[in-house]
Amino acid sequence: MYEKAESEEVSLGDEFTVLVIRGKGDSIISRMKDGRVILFNRESPIFEDLRPGMIVHGRVIFVAQNYIIMDPVSPPESGVEAIRMGLRMVTESESWEMGIIANALLYMLDLLEEGEA
């Protein structure tokens, strides 16, 4: 999510990285900037490794008007990049208060990384 431009159309075979989030019940999903849901191919051997808060690189295998299905092509990752992607999502949400907090956290992550260099 958020690696593709909002106005960019998604096609079969496109590859990009998304943040895994919790869907309804115990399901896991992701979302495009335009609000479409991204579902993950349950038959993929990587599917069982997916957890909310992780990022995963995948390939689009089905496109519908309201959703797409993605086949994970590499093992999911957690850590700083997943946190950054989640915070960037929050900065673009409708809640300006949460956006301010997310921007502050992104700024602090940048400062911490500069201190490690």
List the helices and strands and how they pair.
Elements: E1 15-19, E2 21-22, E3 28-31, E4 37-40, E5 55-63, E6 67-72, H1 80-91, H2 96-116
Parallel strand pairs: 4-6
Antiparallel strand pairs: 1-5, 2-3, 3-4, 5-6
Helix pairs in contact: 1-2
What's a concise summary of this model?
The protein contains two helices and six strands, in the order E-E-E-E-E-E-H-H.
Describe the protein in words.
The protein is an alpha+beta fold. The protein folds into two domains: 15-72, OB fold (Dihydrolipoamide Acetyltransferase, E2P), CATH 2.40.50; 80-116. 28% of the residues lie in helices and 26% in strands. Strand 5 and strand 6 (67-72) form a beta hairpin. The longest helix is centred in the last third of the chain and has 21 residues, at 96-116. The mean pLDDT is 89.
Q: What characterizes the major β-sheet?
A: 6 strands, mixed
Distance between the termini: 28 Å
Radius of gyration, in Å, reads: 15 Å
- Unreliable runs, pLDDT <50, ≥5 residues? none
> Mean pLDDT score, rounded?
89
Q: Under the CATH scheme, which architecture of the largest domain would be assigned? A: Beta Barrel
Class of secondary structure makeup: alpha+beta
Domain unit count: 2
What is the H/E order? Answer: EEEEEEHH
CATH class of the largest domain: Mainly Beta
CATH topology name of the largest domain: OB fold (Dihydrolipoamide Acetyltransferase, E2P)
The named CATH superfamily of the largest domain: NigD-like N-terminal OB domain
| Tally of DSSP helical segments | 2
Number of strands: 6
What strand line-up does the widest sheet have?
1-5-6-4-3-2
Form type: globular
Beta fraction of the residues? Answer: 25-35%
The percentage helix is 25-40%
